[in-house]
Amino acid sequence: MIVLEWLFLTIAPCDAAEPWQLGFQDAATPMMQGIMDLHHDIFFFLILILVFVSRILVRALWHFHYKKNPIPQRIVHGTTIEILRTIFPSIILMFIAIPSFALLYSMDEVVVDPAITIKAIGHQWYRTYEYSDYNSSDEQSLTFDSYTIPEDDLELGQSRLLEVDNRVVVPAKTHLRIIVTPADVPHSWAVPSSGVKCDAVPGRLNQISISVQREGVYYGQCSEICGTNHAFMPIVVEAVPRKDYGSRVSNQLIPQTGEA
Amino acid sequence: MNFSAMLSQIELKTAPADFRFPTTNQTRHCFTRYIEFHRCVAAKGEESNECERFAKYYRSLCPGEWIERWEEQRENGSFPGPL
Lengths: 260, 83
Description:
The complex is a heterodimer of chains A (260) and B (83).
Chain A: H1 2-11, H2 30-63, H3 79-108, E1 116-123, E2 126-130, E3 143-146, E4 168-171, E5 175-182, E6 187-191, E7 196-200, E8 206-211, E9 216-220, E10 235-240, H4 242-259
Parallel strand pairs in A: 1-5, 4-10
Antiparallel strand pairs in A: 1-2, 2-3, 5-8, 6-7, 9-10
Helix pairs in contact in A: 2-3
Chain B: H1 3-9, H2 27-44, H3 52-61, H4 64-76
Helix pairs in contact in B: 2-3
Function (chain B): Component of the cytochrome c oxidase, the last enzyme in the mitochondrial electron transport chain which drives oxidative phosphorylation.
Protein name (chain B): Cytochrome c oxidase subunit
Subcellular location (chain B): Mitochondrion
């Protein structure tokens, strides 16, 4: 029963960090999928090298013994082995570098025009999100603050220090542009499931383009130490079907424009 | 304004990717769009509808706080850009 409970509680959130988690969170964007694939590719070589080097090391320690081998061989030069141990590592490095650079540059590239722009503005210690694509004047029509929910107000099933009062609603399977910037000190906007960790630097606008592939709620946290409440400004992205996005946005727009 | 009218207004459209600003750093993208809008207004006059798209672009890209500050600076004549 305890095991079941533990399994259920740890697996339930899926797109949030879980206790004692060692692996990745499930990928929600092609970018995160690419990062995970690269990680596994590199781990293949990593383990290969680990086994090989450990074997040499253990073998050397085993044989370099005053009783077993009183007069060790002293080879200081060997052309064949030197050529081999130069070329072989270079080939391994190439096999690591090529997919790594391919991923790095493809993550940076904006292939198609984004459909919406969301501004994620970090404050000490909350986040403000601006949806300004639908504005017809400089007045901000859809801007909201996103605060963490205090521990005492949590409802059953909500994650401590991860839940916020106002989530960022984005359409799924749509190209998004997220502009990350702070209003005071450096912050960071990081959502592991979407493969995003973007620093927010004062006076600078950083752009990330993502496309969330499945509907869901994705959790992230501030990843740049930004003061006392650094741990209490999480990020919650809610990806909704594209057809529902319009009504979600207009629902939030109406109370503000309706008064005017 | 009723609900359905509002819903039909929501069109998934934003400032396009600009080949002048291909990197992660989009600070100049926002600033340039802001300047482009005001130059456009200066050239074509307030009534012209052609400038509206630049306004949409800079509103999409720039944080509201920045726009407010620039508006203030333009009023005071201390705006740090070619207008």
